[in-house]
Structures are given as C-alpha cells and as structure tokens.
C-alpha cells in the first residue's frame, strides 16, 4: 500500500498548508460556483457556505474524515422548480429553495439518528442500486437540454460565436480529464472554465464593466444589512426537494467508501456513517440559513487526496478557510459573474453526462440483471417519469419535480414488487 505523505492527523508545515489548501480550493471551485450560477443564486454565498459546511462536517466527524463539502448538483432542477428563474437567470423566490434545503438537512439528521440506533443495513431495503442508479441517470439526462441550450443560444437565438466558446470549454475539460495524470486531472471543470473564459475574452463576448465598478472587499449578498429572502411555505417545496436525499445519501455513502479506500480507513465504522451523514446534513442546513445551496461531499477533492497522498484534515480545514476568505473578494466575485453562459454550458455538457454515466457505472458494478422483469420495470418507470416529467403539475399551484417523483415511485416499486431479496447487491458493503 502506498505510504501517505501526510496522514489524517499529521500537521503540515506552513508552506505545505498553503499549497495543499489552495489545491483543494481550486479543485472544488468550478463545481461549487457553477451550481449557483445555474440556479440563480449567489456564487459568493455558495463559496462562503462551502467553507462553513466543511468546518461543521470536520467537527461533527471528530476531525477523522478529510472530506470537503461543495454545492450539490442533484438539487439543480428542484431549486429551479421551487425558486423559479427570471429572464435574467436570477432566482425569483430563493427563500423557497432555502426552506427546502433546511428540510433536507433535517432529513439527514433523522436518517443519521436511525443509523446510530439501528445500524445502516436497513438503507439497503430502501436505496438499492436498481433505484439509485436510474435516478442518478435522470439527474444527468434531465439537465442535458439545459446544458445544450446554454452552450448554443443567447437570448433564445442561436449564436455561433458563443457556441465556439462552449466547444473550446468542453474540449479543454475533456483533455484535462483524459490526458493529464497529475493534480490538474483532478480539476478539469476549473481548467475548462479558465480556458473557455480566456477564449471568450479573445473573441469579445465578455463584459468587464461590473468588475471595474466592484469593490475589493464586499459582503456576500445575504450578509448585506437589509437583504433577506422571502418564502412561501408550500407542499411543493417539501415534495420537490426532500425526495432527492434518496440520491444524495447514496452518493454520500459511496464517497465515504471510496475515501476510506484512498486513506486506508473504514469511515462507515469510525467515526461512523451516522456522524458523516449528520455532518453533511448540518452543513446543508447551515448553508441554507445564509442563502447557500445544499451541500455534498466532493469527489473532486477525493481525487486530489488520491493524487497527492496528503490526507491531513488540517489541509481540508485550510481549504475551507481559504474559500471563506475568497468569498469576500468583491472583484473576484464580479469576475465570476462575467463568465459567459456558453462557457457554463460547455462545461455542463461534460459534467451532466458524467453524472448520467456514473449511474450506468453503478448498474454495471452492482451487476443488476436486466433479464429480470422486476429490475426492468423499476428502471423503466424511473427513467420515463424522471426525464419526461421535468415538473409534473397536479393542480394550478402544486407541482412535483419529475426527478423527485421518480425517486419516490422507484422506492415504492422496489418495496412492493416481489423478488427484492435476491436481485440486489449490497453496495454499502465494507471490508473488515
């Protein structure tokens, strides 16, 4: 087994701390700011809350799990549904999304309590691969139309100039993903955005007016005195966002297993799955309190750990502090706001495709048998309801996001259809 450069509780030198902390910050940066850009929330708040949520996670897990928390892509469609988007791409009712995210955090806490008292095996009955994998596929494919539209169109009309920027961005991200083997391979999203942005500046589709007028230091939106988010507490907020925990909890467990293999620990046992889930949930709840999107542990940062073999929680803590400090840079946040929609569209084509492909990978690795009619039925219904029903409206004022409804239906079908006990593999199995 490869020896760690810095193990979990080893303290780095000042130089190591600064270098490795910035590496982790850059690894998560592209994805963390992309989510709020897509749903009309504040990138600065998303960056700030990623740092805060990570610190909360480290405290709850007793500084035993070197994981970074960033913005969750699973909640993009639900947030757009409950918060709405203006023509300018700004969330109309962001408070609705915040209430939904708080509810998600509460559900995490409840599940963590149940696991603490009864163990985690019962999760297998609710979240087997045949339910989780198709829903993950739905997340990726359901957003594919949005990605392509962002890449090709400006104000509803096709723009070849902007599309070229999307292609440059996409090509760069692919190159860094496939051909680079060092630390840069762990941050293809960030590198794609940087190269795509530079190209956009060259072809003249970036407006720097806001950057010139921005202050060096600026409070993130929700922290500005007098700024507040209104909300309307409706059933649609609960139904539209909470069911997505079916996916994010599975994602969380998967990350804990992969991370455990990377650093040679069993995090399911120590500090325990209940602690890591609670840390994730409280991080999401705290994020929502100040206007940030739901949080999840980041695979990008796990990749950095695997490449650098620096597992120190002090480095993760350092990255969280760096993210918090950067969020108060008014000029940097203004610069982020100038990123063309086409660049975000180009990177989203790859990112959403990878999300969908990871669902297919789970089906393959779990050896789900599609010769079994039960599996075929469950997957088919989830895919059609999730992708076809972007938002299923039952009354004039009540709609359920298609992915959420697909998740609920998938869980129900898995529980009621016969043959469940012999068709699934325990994806949460850990080596003793």
Automatic annotation (TrEMBL):
InterPro entries per record = NCS2, Xan_ur_permease
Per UniProt, the keywords (alphabetical) are: Membrane, Transmembrane, Transmembrane helix, Transport
GO terms for cellular component: plasma membrane
Instruction: Tell me where the transmembrane regions lie.
Output: 12-35, 41-60, 67-85, 97-116, 123-148, 160-180, 189-211, 231-249, 311-336, 342-364, 376-392, 398-417
Cellular location(s): Membrane
Task: List the membrane topology term(s).
Answer: Multi-pass membrane protein
Pfam family for this entry, one = Xan_ur_permease
What GO molecular functions are on record for this protein? xanthine transmembrane transporter activity
Family membership: Belongs to the nucleobase:cation symporter-2 (NCS2) (TC 2.A.40) family.
List the NCBIfam families.
ncs2
Return the protein name. Answer: Uracil transporter
Species source reads: Solibacillus isronensis B3W22
């Amino acid at each position: 087994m490869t020896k760690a450069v810095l193990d979990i509780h080893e303290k780095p030198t000042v130089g190591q701390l600064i270098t490795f902390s910035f590496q982790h910050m850059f690894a998560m940066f592209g994805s963390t700011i992309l989510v709020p850009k897509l749903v009309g929330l504040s990138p600065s708040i998303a960056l700030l809350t990623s740092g805060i949520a990570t610190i909360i996670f480290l405290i709850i897990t007793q500084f035993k799990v070197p994981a970074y928390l960033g913005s969750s892509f699973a909640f993009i469609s639900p947030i757009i549904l409950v918060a709405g988007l203006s023509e300018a791409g700004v969330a109309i009712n962001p408070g609705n999304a915040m209430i939904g995210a708080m509810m998600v955090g509460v559900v995490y806490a409840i599940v963590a309590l149940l696991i603490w008292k009864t163990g985690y095996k019962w999760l297998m009955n609710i979240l087997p691969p045949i339910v989780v994998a198709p829903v993950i596929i739905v997340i990726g494919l359901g957003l594919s139309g949005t990605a392509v539209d962002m890449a090709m169109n400006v104000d509803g009309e096709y723009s070849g100039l902007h599309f070229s920027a999307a292609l440059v961005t996409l090509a760069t991200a692919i190159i860094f993903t496939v051909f680079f083997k060092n630390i840069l391979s762990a941050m293809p999203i960030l590198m794609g955005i940087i190269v795509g942005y530079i190209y956009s500046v060259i072809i003249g589709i970036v407006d720097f007016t806001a950057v010139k007028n921005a202050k060096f230091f600026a409070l993130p939106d929700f922290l500005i005195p007098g700024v507040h988010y209104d909300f309307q507490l409706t059933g649609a907020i609960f139904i539209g966002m909470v069911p997505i925990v079916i996916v994010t909890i599975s994602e969380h467990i998967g990350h804990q297993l992969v991370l455990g293999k990377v650093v040679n620990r069993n995090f399911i046992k120590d500090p325990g799955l209940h602690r890591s889930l609670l840390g994730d949930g409280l991080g999401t709840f705290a994020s929502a309190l100040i206007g940030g999107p739901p949080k999840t542990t980041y695979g990008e940062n796990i990749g950095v750990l695997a490449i650098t073999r620096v597992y120190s929680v002090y480095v993760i803590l350092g990255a969280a502090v760096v993210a918090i400090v950067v969020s108060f840079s008014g000029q940097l946040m203004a610069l982020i706001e100038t990123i063309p929609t086409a660049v975000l569209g180009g990177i989203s084509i790859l990112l959403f495709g990878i999300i969908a492909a990871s669902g297919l990978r789970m089906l393959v690795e779990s050896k789900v048998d599609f010769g079994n009619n039960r599996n075929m039925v469950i997957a088919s219904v989830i895919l059609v309801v999730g992708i076809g029903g972007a938002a299923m409206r039952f009354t004039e004022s009540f709609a359920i996001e298609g992915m959420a409804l697909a998740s609920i239906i998938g869980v129900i079908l898995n529980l009621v259809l016969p043959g469940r006990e012999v068709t699934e593999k325990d994806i949460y199995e850990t080596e003793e």
